Amino acid sequence: MSHTHCRRISFRLAGLGVCLVLACGPGPDSTPDPATEPQPSLSPEATAALVGAFQAELDAAWAQAQETDENFPGATAAFILPDGRVFGFATGLSDVDDEVPMTPDLRMGSGSIGKTYVAAVALQLAMNGDLDLDAPVATWLGDEDWFSRVPNHADLTVRNLLNHTAGMIQPYFEDPDFAVRLGEVFRDPDAYMTPEEFIAETVLDAEPLFPAGGGYHYSDVHYTLAGLAIEEATGRTYYDLLDEFFLDPLGLDLTLAADRRDLPGLAQGYAHRSSQLYGTPLEVVVDGRFILHPLQEWTGGGLVNNPQAMVRWAKLLYEGEAISGDDLPQLLEVGFPADSTRPHLGYGLAVSVAESEHGLTYGHGGFWPGYNSLLAYYPDHGVAVSIQVNSDDSRMRDHMPRLAGVVLEALDGTEG
After folding, report:
1. Whose C-alpha in 76, 261, 322, 393 is 20 to 30 A from the C-alpha of 35?
2. Model pTM?
3. Do the Cβ atoms of 311 and 376 come closer than 8 Å?
């Protein structure tokens, strides 16, 4: 894996937004080779124009949200160009009551985007010969007293779990009784369900939705089981493997394991949706600490993140650079096509493969009380775009196409 060194250049644009540019190049110990170094995708003048246009679009999205009463206190966003340069942005407010501006380096819970890292860890273990994705999950969890009560337990493979073809419900949104129980847990800031408790509360003795491999249904329970299998197979914690394989060597310093309440650099989050679902307070950060224990999510998501790190992660992951080995065919192979006429579209190993108005995309979304996140990589362009909003009830999917369009149109202009 190659390493890069990023030089930070900060400047303020008009309005609420602050733009941080990360000019990335070879690491300090590397010797640049002019024949192999990527050339800048845009001239300095075109880059400055793109940065200004992207910030203006992000500010416009925030301003429009205020007029339409959308729950959009503030946002961070970023894009990465084909040459690897990353640009980070912010708009609106990190803290509404104290009128604290959002800034580009703040972290938010990234929800199920964390699944992309879990699948990458599993796939790296498979490349290393330490985990067989097509072996029965019972290989590692079969001795647990509760495992025989898991739906489809006899036929489940790790791949079924990672591509959501294992046939279990998504309890966070489909089980009203679970929402009540989770609300009771959330009343104690230091409480959370262990993975085993979460499984016991949601799927034990339930009828499967379909036979293993016989359909697609998204569920966090799948990734909880995958996390337990990963730890049993290796004798190590998932977070240790994540640090060793990806976060440390790739320099993803803005991405942190959400394994405690006192995580640095948090933007205030506003749980507009979760307060209705689970009875949580509206503000999820008090004195720099989460009021809900993030370990409730674990391998269902389990990270605090930032768009600048996420776009770097997406480019490395979906261009085959993050994982050592020929991983892309497995990563992008959908388990159950979303459209039988287009069998390449659907859900792979923690990646949604879809068509957008800007062409094919690989990516994921994420929800955690107080935050919404979205990450998209455009393989035809070598570009990734990400946005995080510090509300869990915003309409990010309306904003992402316009933000991506600003970047892709600027690149198309140079190519034309």
Report:
1. 322
2. 0.91
3. no
Contact call for residues 109 and 294 (beta carbons, < 8 A): yes
Give the 3-state DSSP-derived string for the chain, with helices as H, strands as E and coil as C.
CCCEEEEEEEEECCCCCEEEEEEEEECCCCCCCCCCCCCCCCCHHHHHHHHHHHHHHHHHHHHHHHHHCCCCCEEEEEEECCCCCEEEEEEEEEECCCCEECCCCCEEECHHHHHHHHHHHHHHHHHHCCCCCCCECHHHHCCCCCHHHCCCCCCCEHHHHHCCCCCCCCHHHHCHHHHHHHHHHHCCCCCCCCHHHHHHHHCCCCCCCCCCCCCCCCCHHHHHHHHHHHHHHHCCCHHHHHHHHHHCCCCCCCCEECCCCCCCCECCCECCCHHHHHCCCCECEECCEECCCHHHCHHHCCEEECHHHHHHHHHHHHCCCCCCCCCHHHHHCCCCCCCCCCCCCEECCCCEEEEECCEEEEEEEEEECCEEEEEEEECCCCEEEEEEECECCCCHHHHHHHHHHHHHHHHHHHHC
pLDDT for the residue 3:
39
β-bridge partners, 378: 383
Phi, psi at 75, each rounded to 5° = -155, 150
The token duo for 5 is: 């060194």
How far is residue 289's CA from residue 115's CA, in Å, rounded to a whole number?
A: 23
CB 351 within 8 A of CB 116: yes
How many Cβ atoms from other residues are within 10 Å of residue 14's Cβ? Answer: 9
Structure tokens at 150: 């898991």
The angle formed by the CA atoms of residues 303, 100 and 17, to the nearest 5 degrees, is 80
Pairing assessment for the beta strands 352-356 and 359-368 based on DSSP bridges: antiparallel
Contact predicate 303/255, CB 8 Å? yes
- Tell me the torsion sign for CA atoms 221, 222, 226, 229: positive
Low-confidence ranges of the chain (pLDDT < 50): 1-36, 415-416
151 and 167 in contact (C-beta within 8 Å)? yes
Note whether 111 and 371 are within 8 A (CB): yes
Q: Output the pLDDT for position 117.
A: 98
Predicted local distance difference test score (pLDDT) of residue 162: 98
| pLDDT of 40 | 78
154: left (phi over 0), alpha (psi -120 to 50) or beta: alpha
Residue 293 structure tokens: 């224990």
Does residue 23 contact residue 9 with C-beta atoms inside 8 Å?
Answer: yes
